[in-house]
Amino acid sequence: MSNLDLRPTATVCGGRAEVTAEPVRDLLPGRNVPLGESTVVRRLLPSLGRRMVGAWCFVDHYGPDDIAEEPGMQVPPHPHMGLQTVSWLHQGEVLHRDSLGSLQTLRPGELGVMTSGRAISHSEESPGEHAPFLHGAQLWVALPDSARHTAPSWEHHSALPQVSGGGLEATLILGELDGAVSPGTTFTPLVGADITLTAGTDTRLPVQPDFEYAALTMSGESVVDGVPLSPGSLFYLGCGRRELPLRADVDSTLMLLGGEPFEERIVMWWNFIGRSHDEITQARWDWMNTDRFGEVQGYPGDRLPAPELPNTPLKPRGRAR
């Protein structure tokens, strides 16, 4: 997924100093952002109130959108560095192409993880023959300094571990949850899970006290730690919990994101994550002038040009605004 904002904000985030070391209940509204020809996403992270949850640094929620008579998602080739992209669908299909030569159609319940490492480019599109509805989430994970210069890679996992009990069914996307371990590659301690709650569920999910967490309702109305959540908002929960109360009066689905607070301060601008303004400047120049990020074969259109850099250098900021 690309950040198509023509004036992306350049920010520095990360570090443990501003992580809440106790449970909190902070509801963060999203903002609507156009993506491609006919898709509008709700950008939930980074937000006006928070920039990271563990190593999760970017969350877009889209749909359910009726695309029966529309082209659906059409995101031209664009670059990434210093991060992983995580694709997750509830409805529809997305065709992934990348500069490694990968060509994969992702469907609901299947995990696509692209590790950009030092440089990669990819595109995402709804296939020509596609389902009438598109609904899902696109997420980024910041890579630690020890992994951000690795060779790029692509993973597709069609079978993922499940956690169930008390009206709860959870699919583990990344990391570990209640003894289950995802096959997806991670570089810092984190968790991503898709949770289904049947109507009448009232349960508690074991979590890690040294992780910070956030919840995103995908459908229905889940009640997380006593707070009702409608689709389209991110609910930040802080740290210090050993269990998370979950309830639903109607059938609902939500995503749980968490991880150890990311210790390093990062610079995130457009589709790049680095550690300095100069590093981001070099990446932009390389995308526009060299073959560092490779070439995506087969996409029926031009690649995305990089937006202009801001006139002022980056200023360090914390995880929360």
Automatic annotation (TrEMBL):
MF term (GO), any: metal ion binding
Keywords from the named record: Iron, Metal-binding
Residue sites binding Fe cation per the record: H78, H80, H122, E124
InterPro entries per record: Pirin, Pirin_C_dom, Pirin_N_dom, RmlC-like_jellyroll, RmlC_Cupin_sf
Cofactor details (free text): Binds 1 Fe cation per subunit.
Domain Pirin N-terminal as annotated: residue spans: 45-141
Residues covered by region (Disordered): 298-321
Residues in Pirin C-terminal domain copies: 193-290
CC cofactor: Fe cation
Keyword Transcription regulation: no
Superkingdom to which the source organism belongs: Bacteria
Similarity-based family: Belongs to the pirin family.
Name of this chain's protein: Pirin family protein
Organism, as annotated: Streptomyces palmae
Lineage: Bacteria, Bacillati, Actinomycetota, Actinomycetes, Kitasatosporales
